From TrEMBL:
Residue stretches of biased makeup (Basic and acidic residues): 239-261
EC number: 2.7.7.79
Binding site for Mg(2+) 2: D29, D76
Protein's job: Adds a GMP to the 5'-end of tRNA(His) after transcription and RNase P cleavage.
Pfam families named in the record: Thg1 (PF04446), Thg1C (PF14413)
Spans annotated as Disordered: 229-261
Domain tRNAHis guanylyltransferase catalytic residue range list: 6-135
Name of this chain's protein: tRNA(His) guanylyltransferase
Amino acid sequence: MACSKFQYVKHFEQPHDLLKNTFIVVRIDGKGFSKFTNAHGFEKPNDDRGIELMNCAALSLMKAFTEIIIGYGQSDEYSFVLKKSATTYSRREDKILSTMVSHFTSAYIFNWCKFFPDQELEYPPTFDARIILYPTIENLMDYLSWRQADCHVNNLYNTTFWLLVHNNSDEDKTSQEKQAQAHEDLKGTFSKDKHEIMHKFGVNYNNEKDIYRRGSILVRQWNATQLNKQAKKEKKRKSKEEEKKEETKEEKQDITTKKKPEIIQDKEKSVIIVHEDLVDKMEFYERHDLFEKLK
Ligand SMILES: Nc1nc2c(ncn2[C@@H]2O[C@H](COP(=O)(O)OP(=O)(O)OP(=O)(O)O)[C@@H](O)[C@H]2O)c(=O)[nH]1
Ligand SMILES: [Mg+2]
């Protein structure tokens, strides 16, 4: 009786289901990381420990959520792409968003001491998150291109900026003043000007590490069951093609004696990390079989 009196409040909850047949992108971003990275002595402009910790947290998330096919990370942000047919939490927005950002944050904190053994966490880092739905693969590819182009632009700026600051030998200037000077020097400069400035200091931007220039891409691998399914599908497709061509007896023979797909050890949760160029690069998606995996 007492319980039923209160039950009506449940109806105030408004769960929202994400539109079917769309790619779900979850983007997580560090809150106030300009302050957080300063407070924890991160190297400027890129701290390998910080980048590896972000990648470790992302990997942990991708191991927990097997419908995430791609992760893309740079600076203090990570995007995760779920396949179009994903059914994680029945596509409930609040569950997906809150659980993923919570998992990422706790993995970041849980693994902190592995990457920063000499630096205590001064206060708990926080991440925000949003969900964006993309209806077409082209939209999704443009989204990832946009994030990687952002990484490139920011890294080009930051690399030049810190080179100017670190090479400013004016002893009367404080670090703050040197930074203000570098900002001033870079105002209105184009990409080619920044390359020239770097060149003056003997730095060739193209030799900077790929992980800095392009960020990190985590790509899910096929598991054994999927691989075998793929191989069968491919075999079927090929034999259909052959039928159409009215192949010769010899060709038929070749197909029927073709080796059975190899049984590969189950690597259900395996993910690889690459630092490739994906801006407008169809071949990136083809090389990693992403058109199939993202279906
Ligand atoms: N030194 C250093 N700083 C980093 C590194 N990666 C990220 N950051 C800092 O993190 C910031 C990320 O940018 P934003 O997300 O726009 O800034 P934010 O302070 O986190 O602000 P909000 O996201 O709006 O809360 C950069 O501007 C840097 O200050 C790194 O490897 N080294
Ligand atoms: Mg941030």
